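Dear colleague,

Thank you for sharing your sequence with our group. We've completed the structure prediction you requested, and as agreed, I am returning the results in plain text so they can be pasted directly into your records. Please verify that the sequence below matches your submission; if there's any discrepancy, let me know and we will rerun it promptly.
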Amino acid sequence: MQFLSDLWANGPLKCAVLSWTVAQGIKVLISLWLDKKLDWRRCFGMGGMPSSHSAFVFSLMMAIGIQETLASPIFAVAFGLAAVVIYDAMGVRRETGKQSVVLNQILTQMLVEGKPITEKQLKELVGHTPLEVAAGIIVGIIVTLLVM
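Please find the predicted structure tokens below.
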């Protein structure tokens, strides 16, 4: 039990986990509002508004900067991690989502033509738009300022 209390005493980690949790909760609420149904898969799913990955890494970076100063080597590591994760969210993962949309269209056309397809549709919500990433960063900032 000491292990868990030690983890929770870590301010930057607490900020990051809370930011991720808040962002995922917002996704559930947005899905409920738009789709008029409760989709619990949004609690742990990737993609969507806001980016929980961006909220997590930006909050972690910001909390480390507050706790250790911006001149610390650990802040530089956190900054690098945040930059890579955010770039990946908008770059590689976003493009993967776009490709999934096209492949799902192809699968639909094949099904209409009567060719048997057994694979499930590809997951389209993989990456994030710049707006989703910005919203995730804002969640990370707000949670970190409230906690730290």
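Summary note from our side: The radius of gyration is 18 Å.

Kind regards,
the structure core
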